[in-house]
Amino acid sequence: MALAELYTQYNRVWIPDREEVWRSAEITKDYKAGDHLLHVQLEDGNELDYPVDPVVLPPLRNPDILVGENDLTALSYLHEPAVLHNLKVRFVESKLIYTYSGIILVAMNPYKQLPIYGDAIIHAYSGQNMGDMDPHIFAVAEEAYKQMARNNKNQSIIVSGESGAGKTVSARYTMRYFATVSKSSSNAHVEDKVLASNPITEAVGNAKTTRNDNSSRFGKYTEISFDQSYQIIGANMRTYLLEKSRVVFQVGKIKF
């Protein structure tokens, strides 16, 4: 099927917008290959002759039945406006902060405490396959824990995001999950003990950003050790200074 054949009357597209980033619009007249205008109607009722590049046409909008999917890979069209709109619908309308994109978990920071991290939720995800239940950080942690126990191989979870995205909190909940499901004797705040091991350099390495008053300038590698019964026996955190320009001179030697 030619690309132009998809841009027929009543189909919907995403139009770039300075304020809203993307706006939904319905095509009011069939598009012909080579045309430089796309006749559309915005959701507020205004009609627009939108100039287009015949080679790069505006992204198509997914059918309403797919909006709000818990896995982005289930969308017919997977592009920036589709991803942003799906995350917005789940976060604003359904109050859900987690969404899958295949084996990747996308998290929206609600900037408030949510009642979805208690022991009852941990036990609900324990033993479940990833995808059997709603997307959750506990589902990712369970998959890693299960693969470690089943295959007897080290597992890694990468937590990434911009400043203030909630990376430290996500790491905390992951460690809490491991401590609870492994029935470790030290499961009472094991995540607090690990996170409290940050070096004193954190005091001069942090910085204020537009979204986080205490943004870490460090990359962190946390290694959690388990015994043969898969119970936590220790943890180690390594830090990597990401912005060495902040170290302007040596003030002395620090011994630990």
Automatic annotation (TrEMBL):
InterPro entries: Kinesin_motor_dom_sf, Myosin_head_motor_dom-like, P-loop_NTPase. GO terms for cellular component: cytoplasm; membrane; myosin complex. Residues 67-256 form the Myosin motor domain. The keyword Lyase does not apply. It comes from the Eukaryota. ATP binds at residues 161-168. One of its GO terms (biological process) is actin filament organization. Signal peptide: none annotated. The keyword Nucleotide-binding applies. One of its GO terms (molecular function) is microfilament motor activity. Keywords: Actin-binding, ATP-binding, Motor protein, Myosin, Nucleotide-binding. PANTHER family: MYOSIN, UNCONVENTIONAL MYOSIN-VC. Belongs to the TRAFAC class myosin-kinesin ATPase superfamily. Myosin family. This is Myosin motor domain-containing protein.
